[in-house]
Design a protein that fits this description.
binds alpha-L-arabinofuranose; about 500 residues; alpha/beta; Immunoglobulin-like; TIM Barrel; 10 helices
Length: about 500
């Protein structure tokens, strides 16, 4: 095929030999960017539910108690799947406390977060919320102190269409049609000693296997997520191996959780967490493969169903983390890693959604958007694209005795509008990096849309009335093209999404 070389002068710099190169090839596909990668998590914790998405009696809430300003921001974010009710909360939760007339629901001591739980928000309130925002609901059963019966009855309450005891309870509570909840988690972080009902891998696997069987007998269309590794100080690989081995004929996903921090106040180290995220994914993918040696194995994927930056606000601050510009850059790092592993990472849930380690913060008068909100929204526009296996050569630095490219990259392709997305995190604190982007298949057109987050102060944050600072800038470039490649300079400490078009 005839190929011409396009040169686009962009980003204000045209280097003779740019120090970095990115080769894109729409034939080198990894897998679909699953829409479920753009999920969130809503736990009964601090002001996530009460005062977050739900505030009875507030002038900002509708007749059902949902905060409408929050709902608008949540809808705009494009949440595809919402995990509920925890988290650590789920391991001590009795779901039957949260159904029926609100004034008759019991107030309980909540042990995971040392709080009082009014139970005024429960299964029906959650499932109606998920419907209102257009997200798949994803319920995590109590795999800590709960029982197999609790789990199967919960599925019956939400999904059964015949007249059974639990389906009729649902009808009594105002909902005739089954909710048809498809995604169910078989417990949360059961590998962690902090978890109520923590178990060793063998005991957990026995419980989860029986729960899975019983839940599927109620509804065989459900998808199940096993509690995978969250406790990386322990034998996390052994945990996954045992769980996968025991559950390989029952589960559809295994969960991973990762929270990152910048305690050393070192940007390049912080944005090098991708080393570990890639490693967790690839090691777990290997463990999945190792259990699939038999004929006709059940496909199993990774659900990264808790991920975020979390290190400043602890339990006493109810996890109300204030996010800054460098945390927004870290969002790109996580998504780049998920996209690069799009064949195996098929679900991800940012922990969480509102107030608790969250992109949206509220008070009684309104809300503001944290800097991390914007990259989440923008990466979400690539859902359904196919992830491409880009070749990257970039200046490097050394972290944990390994070389790491300053440019952290993922690429995706939308065949409907012939758009190629080049997602580039420049994690260098000081170097702008001129990069030749070379297209291998098809002809580039001159239209380039640029979305970029960059800010001089890495620690800049937002607050009420001041949330327009650390926001993306967008522009379009029409290049004078002469060759099938372009040069773009990625500024130091920036996150850029270039949307290129093929003829
Ligand atoms: O998201 C906050 C907590 O972090 C969750 O409850 C738990 O699963 C994790 O340890």
């Amino acid at each position: 095929m005839h190929r011409i070389l396009l040169v686009l002068i962009a980003g204000g710099l045209m280097a003779q030999t740019p120090p970095a190169r990115i080769k894109i090839d729409i034939d080198r596909t990894i897998g679909e960017v699953d829409p479920l990668l753009f999920g969130n998590f809503a736990e009964h914790l601090g002001r996530m539910i009460y005062g977050g998405i739900y505030e009875e009696g507030s002038p900002l809430s509708d007749k059902d108690g949902y905060r409408t300003d929050v709902m608008d921001a949540v809808k705009k974010l494009g949440v595809s799947i919402l995990r509920y009710p925890g988290g650590n909360f789920s391991s001590g939760y009795n779901w039957t406390d949260g159904i029926g007339p609100k004034d008759q629901r019991p107030v309980r001591v909540e042990l995971a977060w040392n709080a009082l739980e009014s139970n005024r928000f429960g299964t029906d309130e959650f499932l109606r919320y998920a419907e209102r925002i257009g997200a798949e609901p994803y319920i995590c059963i109590n795999g800590g102190l709960g029982t197999v019966d609790d789990a199967r009855h919960w599925v019956e309450y939400t999904n059964e269409s015949r007249h059974t005891y639990w389906a009729d309870q649902r009808r009594k509570n105002g909902r005739d049609e089954p909710y048809k909840v498809k995604y169910w988690g078989l417990g949360n972080e059961i590998d962690g000693p902090w978890q109520l009902g923590h178990k060793n891998a063998e005991d957990y696997a026995k419980f989860a296997l029986e729960a899975a069987k019983a839940m599927r007998l109620v509804d065989d269309s459900i998808k199940l997520v096993a509690s995978g590794s969250s406790n990386y100080g322990a034998d996390w690989i052994g945990w996954n191996r045992t769980v996968l081995n025991a559950l390989r004929n029952e589960i559809d996903y295994i969960a991973l959780h990762t929270y990152i921090n910048n305690r050393d106040n070192d940007l390049e180290k912080f944005l090098g967490w991708s080393q570990r995220i890639d490693y967790y994914i690839e090691t777990t993918a290997g463990a999945i493969q190792a259990t699939q040696s038999g004929p006709n194995p059940r496909p199993i994927y990774i659900a990264y169903d808790e991920w975020n930056v979390w290190y400043r606000a602890g339990n006493n601050e109810h996890l109300e983390e204030t996010y800054n510009f460098e945390d927004a850059l870290a969002m790109g790092m996580f998504f780049n890693s998920f996209f690069r592993h799009a064949d195996v990472v098929k679900m991800a849930n940012l922990a969480q959604l509102v107030n608790v380690i969250a992109p949206i913060m509220t008070n009684k008068q309104g809300l503001f958007l944290q800097p991390i909100y914007f990259p989440i929204l923008e990466y979400g526009k690539q859902r359904g694209n196919v992830a491409l296996n880009a070749w990257v050569a970039s200046p490097k630095y050394t972290l944990n005795r390994r070389e790491l490219p300053y440019l952290d990259v993922s690429t995706t392709y939308n065949s409907k509008d012939h758009a190629v997305y080049v997602n580039v995190l420049n994690r260098s604190k000081s170097q702008d990096i001129a990069t030749r982007i070379e297209n291998q298949e098809g002809i580039l057109t001159p239209d380039v849309a640029v979305w970029q987050m960059n800010y001089p102060d890495l620690k800049a944050t937002h607050t009420f009335g001041d949330d327009k600072k650390v926001v993306p800038k967008t522009s379009t470039l029409t290049a004078s093209l002469s060759k099938n490649s372009l040069v773009y300079t990625f500024p130091a400490h920036s996150l850029t999404i270039l949307r290129l078009r093929l003829e």
